[in-house]
Write a structure and sequence with these properties.
Belongs to the peptidase M1 family. This protein is of the alpha+beta class. It folds into five domains: 1-205, Sandwich (Immunoglobulin-like); 210-463, Neutral Protease, domain 2 (Orthogonal Bundle), CATH 1.10.390; 464-576, Immunoglobulin-like; 596-747; 765-879. Helices cover 42% and strands 21% of the residues. The protein binds zinc ion. Zinc ion binds next to helix 4 and helix 5.
Length: 879
């Protein structure tokens, strides 16, 4: 990639200060897409704008054959450097400039730009685009920055018989007279003014299901929005469109009421696409989603809930992000935090998933807390100097911490003021770009509160505070209850104590008719600020068995249980009736495990003991994944083998004891399959499930479960290549091909590791999904000895990986191949571990490496240090 591909914020500011865009007309010729030998597609852009500078540039990552500036042909080779098309001699008198760029873009296999996928079931080609933050330039020539909005007219030539979608409905679809296979031209209506990264084209023989949503407009008219849901033809039998459309209508109705700004984009298509790099993308009127939301195998309620959450997240973006767009990627959080918050809020307010905040507390916040303790964390409002930094900022801070902070803001200003502020913001900034100041101004106006200090402490500092309760008790009564806070910004090293609007729950053990229950007797809501805040209302109340700080999860902070609370949780966590409270206690226990305060083995015991009482499948699934991480990364090496066996056996027992056909049964089955990959002795049961010798009533032996069992057998050397090939014959789908690759890559042989390594490092060798599958096989936690020889080649290859692969793929390789499974030797310190020292050595020798690459390596080292510290603490506890 050319060095000028990494557009800087300074350049973007300079460019937008001088340009005003009116329209792009983009013509893409996709008629050759069905021919795998064709690597490129013709692309023509005609852009109209006024300028106050004679010189600027367009962005394009492809091949340029012709450039015309105001009817004047320009020598393409002399103005194009592989990333930018330099434009000279522009009119600066206020009249229009018209620039035409002809060239060709590359079909993508990495999910960036125009991705092409061929379905192994029917050999049909499926295309879709994915641009955020800056990949529209892989498809057409653009001014690639969010604040240069324009209207877009797309024209697409495609094989007859295909469907073609874009942000707007087609205005004209006509057959074109050509030699060879029949071709159809699709011309789409001009869009409203929008950013380049939000444009979209989807093309292929997609299957559709249609619906409609309508609502009354203020003037008495009716707004009608056509709805369609799309997926590959071979997945059509699994597409539960009715369920998806129901959530869609619920969401549109909710936002229509709450935002008081009619849905602005005409129609609403939702397309489930193959080999997608993310959950979904909010292209106005044409949202794209990962195909894993089309459930080919049995799915838990948590999976349906996650899908509904994503649908509502993307839909919120139609207003927040699409209608009003952050000016540059520093303010990415403005739209992502808001959408993430809305995904849960609208789930609760408008759908059957009224408990969505529980999963949020357990899963999303865990992501945020993890990231916010890394040395590379950043304030919610980030400093994003260029596009490579932007690409890495789609992280746990921008999404989950930002949404958590918004949740705290709602508690702080009140929900009425919050939504009134949002309405004013949409009304004032529609079709424009904004920064943080614009949102705060709207919220200050509606809440009457000065948010300057709040924003500085919550949005412009990094790190998570730790909150705990200090409860003094005498004669069965509380004498004093103090909430303590400590917090350090990992970026500046300075103490940061924030204001928290929060609740503290006091819980008692009592018989509630269904047996012993842990029940909340008092809820104290308070403003906590500074290092210690006494809750005076608690004095004189009966001494509780458990004090839960941040009950109801209003604020964002790590919470510690006090010794009495920890004892209660150990014995009675399953008796805590409230799902959100249980989730918060689980979160405190996991944070304590990660911080080497609770031995990993004890966490595993707690999951096995109290997991069966967990009714929320999202929480339960999270617990089983955490238990596995605890065993592989945080347990001392001397203990690991026993813990692995205990987890596999425990998961099996709970699987067989669970109610037939329940979500819990499915979650424990998945946990068993994952655990069996490190316990050769569990292979008999895995094989028994596959061949029917072991029967578990109600358990669906569908493709997902079958493949995970095969992968376990492969990883433990209990399955042959021929058996894996036979399973692929049974399931020759796209997903089957990917799962087969993961299983084959999991075979425990030096030759397999060598082959995995070679294909992974070869640029363009694998698609995005196949990269993930191969890494998963290569890095099987049980294969530490087989992969140890690759530690040194990893460090030697890092810079080459970064330059030879796209940033999307390079990031996966850097993260996935890092030698993160390491054992701490007793009596040592984590910092002295050879893998840590080798990483530090690389960082010192490569200070000039790209910042985005260094960030990944620094994070990998920090995760390793955390694992080693937990192992060492666990080993000390054992003695
Ligand atoms: Zn989003």
């Amino acid at each position: 990639m050319s060095t000028t591909a990494n557009l800087t914020r300074t350049e973007a500011r300079e460019r937008s200060a001088h340009l005003h865009l009116s329209e792009y007309r983009v013509r893409l010729d996709l008629t050759g897409a069905t021919d795998p030998a064709r690597a490129t597609f013709p692309s023509t852009t005609r852009v109209r704008f006024t300028a106050t500078t004679p010189t600027t540039f367009l962005d394009f990552l492809g091949e340029v054959s012709a450039v015309v500036v105001n009817d004047r042909p320009v020598d393409a080779a002399s103005v194009y450097d592989g990333a930018r098309v330099r434009l000279d001699g522009l009119r600066t008198d206020g009249s229009d400039n018209v620039v035409i760029v002809e060239g060709a873009g590359h079909y993508s296999r990495t999910g960036e730009g125009l991705h092409r996928f061929v379905d192994p079931v029917d050999e049909q080609a499926y295309l879709y685009t994915q641009y955020e933050p800056a990949d529209a330039r892989r498809v057409f020539a653009t001014f690639e920055q969010p604040d240069l909005k324009a209207s877009f007219v797309f024209e697409v030539l495609a094989p007859a018989g295909w469907e073609v979608l874009s942000n707007r409905a087609p205005e004209q679809v006509a057959d074109v007279a050509v030699q060879g296979p029949a071709v159809r031209r699709w011309r789409f209506a001009p869009t409203e003014r929008m950013s380049t990264y939000l444009t979209a084209v989807v093309a292929g023989p997609y299957h559709q299901a249609a619906g409609e949503w309508s609502a009354a407009l203020p003037g008495g008219e009716t707004l009608t929005v056509p709805l369609r849901v799309w997926c590959r033809a071979s997945l059509a039998e699994h597409l539960d469109a009715d369920r998806i459309l129901e959530v869609t209508r619920q969401g549109l109705g909710f936002y229509h009421r709450e935002f008081a700004f009619p849905y602005p984009w005409g129609k609403y298509d939702q397309v489930f696409v193959p080999e997608y790099n993310l959950g979904a993308m909010e292209n106005p009127g044409c949202v794209t989603f990962t195909e894993s939301y089309v459930f080919r195998s049995a799915a838990t309620r948590a999976q349906y809930q996650a899908r509904a959450n994503t649908i509502l997240h993307e839909m919120a973006h139609m207003w927040f992000g699409d209608l009003v767009t952050p000016r540059w990627w520093d303010d990415l959080w403005l739209k992502e935090s808001f959408a993430d918050y809305m995904g849960a809020h609208a789930s609760v307010a408008a759908t059957e998933f009224t408990d969505a905040w529980t999963a949020f507390a357990n899963r999303r916040k865990a992501w945020a807390y993890t990231q916010d303790q890394l040395p590379t964390t950043h304030p919610v409002v980030a400093d994003i100097p260029d596009l490579e930094a932007a690409k890495q900022n789609f992280d746990g801070i921008t999404y989950a911490k930002g949404a958590s902070v918004l949740k705290q803001l709602v508690a702080y200003v009140g929900p009425d003021a919050f939504f009134a502020g949002a309405r004013a913001y949409f009304a004032e900034h529609a079709y424009a770009s904004t920064t943080l100041t614009d949102l705060l101004a709207a919220l200050e106006a509606t809440s009457g509160r000065d948010l300057t200090a709040w924003a500085r402490l919550w949005l412009q500092t990094a790190g998570t505070a730790t909150l705990a309760a200090r409860c003094t008790v005498q004669d069965g009564e509380i004498v004093e209850l103090v909430v303590t806070q400590d917090g350090t910004d990992p970026v500046t090293g300075e103490e940061v104590l924030r204001p928290h609007r929060l609740a503290v729950g006091l819980y008692h053990l009592e018989d509630d008719g269904d047996g012993l229950a842990l029940v909340r007797s008092h809820r104290l809501e308070a403003d906590v600020d500074g290092a210690a805040t006494e809750l005076t209302a608690a004095a004189g109340l009966p001494a509780p068995d458990l004090v839960l700080v941040n009950d109801d999860d209003l604020t964002y902070a790590k919470v510690r249980l006090d010794p009495a609370g920890l004892e209660t949780a150990r014995a009675h966590l399953g008796a805590l009736r409230d799902g959100l409270a249980r989730s918060l206690v689980w979160s405190a226990l996991w944070n304590a495990t990660r911080d080497a305060l609770l031995p990993a083995g004890e966490y595993v015991d707690l999951v096995l003991r109290h997991g069966p009482a967990e009714s929320d499948s999202a929480v339960l699934a999270g617990l089983t994944v955490n238990a596995r991480t605890a065993v592989e990364d945080y347990a001392p090496a001397a203990e690991r083998g026993a813990r692995r066996a205990e987890l596999a056996e425990g998961a099996w027992q709970r699987l067989t004891a669970a109610e037939p056909g329940s979500d819990a049964q499915l979650v424990w089955a998945r946990a068993f399959a994952a655990a069996a990959a490190v316990v050769p002795g569990a292979g008999g049961r895995a094989r028994g499930l596959l061949d029917g010798a072991e029967r578990v009533a109600g358990l669906p032996l569908d493709p997902e479960l079958r493949w995970s069992l095969w992968r376990a057998l492969a990883a433990t050397g209990s399955a042959s290549r021929a058996e894996l090939d036979a399973e692929l014959e049974r399931d020759p789908t796209a997903d089957g091909v990917t799962q087969h690759l993961a299983a084959v890559s999991s075979l425990p042989a030096a030759a397999v590791k060598a082959a995995d390594w070679d294909t992974l490092l070869r640029p363009g060798g694998l698609t995005n999904d196949h990269v993930d599958a191969t890494i998963a096989g290569f890095a099987q936690p049980a294969h530490r000895e087989l992969t140890a020889p690759y530690a040194e080649p990893y460090f030697a290859a890092l810079r080459r990986i970064w330059t030879e692969h796209s940033i999307e793929i390079a990031s996966r390789l850097v993260r996935g191949l890092y030698p993160h499974h390491q054992d701490a030797a007793e009596g040592t310190v984590a910092e002295a571990h050879p893998a840590v020292r080798r990483t530090t050595g690389w960082l010192e020798a490569n200070e000039d490496a790209p910042a985005a690459l260094r960030r990944l390596v620094v994070e990998a080292r920090d995760h390793l240090l955390r694992s080693l510290r937990a192992q060492l603490a666990g080993a000390r506890a054992l003695r």
